[in-house]
Amino acid sequence: MKELRLMKGNEAVAEAAIRAGADAYFGYPITPQSEVLEYLMAEKPYERTGMVVLQAESEVAAINMCYGGASCGKKVMTSSSSPGISLKMEGISYMAGAELPCLIVNVVRGGPGLGTIQPSQGDYFQATKGGGHGDYRMIVFTPASVQEMCDFVPLGFDLAFKYRNPVMILSDGVIGQMMEKVELFEQQPRMTHEETIKAAPWATTGRTKDRERNIITSLDLDPSKQEKHVMKLNDKYNEIEANEVRYEALQCEDADYVITAFGSSARICQKAIDIARAEGIKVGLVRPITVWPFPKAVFKELSKKVKGILVVEMNLGQMIEDVKLAVDCKIPVEHYGRTGGILPSPDEVVENLKKKIIGG
Amino acid sequence: MTEEIIIAGFGGQGVLSMGKILAYSGVMQNKEVSWMPSYGPEMRGGTANVTVIISDERISSPILNSYDTAIILNQQSMDKFEKTVKPGGLLIYDGNGITRHPERKDINIYRVDAADEAAKLGILKVFNMIVLGAFLKLKPVVSSEFMRKGLEKSLPKRHHGLIPENEKAVNVGKEIVQPIQVLK
To answer: Which of A188, B55, B141, B170 can bridge B133 by disulfide, Cβ–Cβ 3.0-4.6 Å?
Structure first.
C-alpha cells in the first residue's frame, strides 16, 4: 500500500527527491523554501540511499555543484526562492547550453529585489522567457497541491534526462508552506554507475577505449558551429512543445467564460468558480500545469466558443501575454492580480470576472 | 461535509500544532485536508494563525476570507477574525486576556477557559488540546479513534508517552466548554 502523510509542499518535494533516487541535492536556505534543506538534513538520505545533501556557501555555488554533478550523469536537484533563483540564472543558462539535466525548485516569494517572504507568482517571466541569457527554454511545472509537489519530482527528473535539459518546478509560498495529504510513491533505487553510463552516454563518466572523450561545455567560439548547436537545441524545444504540454480543464464543457490560473491561484479560482456557478454564471477553469511548453491549443479551441477569459495571477500580468498570443486576440482577455505577497480572494476573482469580462 | 476553520492566537500557544493534529486526524479518517499557516516574522512572539479545512471532497482554495468556525485565543485575533465567521457559524474563544468579548448576534458563541484549566491540571502544554476538545464537542468532524491516530502521527515517537495526557485534555475541553450565545 502506498504511504499517506500530511506534509508541507517543501517537505514533499524533499521526500520525493529521495524516493525518486536523486543522487544529490545542493541548496542554500531562504524563506519560504528552507524546509526543503531542513527536511533533507534531518532525514539523512545519505544513510537511506546514499544521496548527497549539501548546504552550499551560496545559491551560485549550489547551481554550479549541480552543473558538476549533472556533467557526471547524476540526478541532481537544487531549490531556492526568488532572489536565490535570480542568482542561479547564470548556471541555469549554462546548463541549458551544455544540455545538462537538472531539477530546480523555485518556491516563489514577492519581488522585485528582496521583496517580501510572502507568496507571489512574479517569477513567471523569469521561468518561461529565459531569466538567464541566450536562446534557451526550460520545462516549467506549476504544482497546485502538495501532491503535485511530490509527483512532479520524478516526472521532472525523467524529462530532464529524456531531453537533457533543466526542468523547473515553479511553486510559491502557499504550496511550499501548506500541509495537505500526500500519497508517497515507493522508493526507487539510485542508478548504479553502469546504469548511469547507459542512461547518460554523453556524461563524463570516464573515457573507455571504444569511444571518444565526452566534453561538457556551453562554449563554441565558431559562429557556424554555435548556430548549429542552437538550432539543435531549438529542434529539441519544438519536440518538447509537441509532446510535453500538460493542463487541466474544469467545467469548461458548457462554459460561457473561462478563468485561467496556475499554481495556488488556480486553487483560489476553483473556489471562485463554485461561487460564480452558484450564482448561475457558466464559467470554467483552465489550469496550465506546464507553463512552458504553454498549452496554446486548449485556449485556441476555447476562443471559438467562450466570450472572454480572465487571467488570475499573483503578479501584475505575466501569463496573460501567453494567453493573448494563444487566442490571437480574437476574444477579450483581461487580467486580475494581487502582488507584494497579497493573495487574491475567491470573492475578488468573481467580482473581477463580472466587472472585466461579463460586464465588459 | 466541508468544515472551514481558522485557529488564531499567540505564537507559542500551540495554534499551529493544534491545527496539525486536527488535520492529521482528518487524514487518518480518510478526509481531504489542508493546513495553511500564516508564516513570517510575525510568528515570533506575535500572532499566529492557521486555516484548516476538512472535507469529504477535493479542497479548492486553501486560503479563505470567511470561516465556518473561528477558534480565537487572544484579543488581536478576536479583533481580526470575529467578523470573518460566516452567519450561523461558530466562534469559540478562551476568555483569558480577552478585554472585548464577541459582539456578533448572528453566530454561535462558546467559551472555553482552557488556560485556567491547563494551569489547574498543572500541565500548561495541553492548553491547545483542551481547546481542540471544545471544538470537537461542538463539531465532531473527526472521531476520538482517529484523533488518537492523528496524535500518533503528529507527535514524534519519543513523545508518544504523552498521548494519554493529551487525550485527557481533549476530554476536559469537551466538559468545560460553555455556551454564551446559541442561535435558535
So the answer is: B170
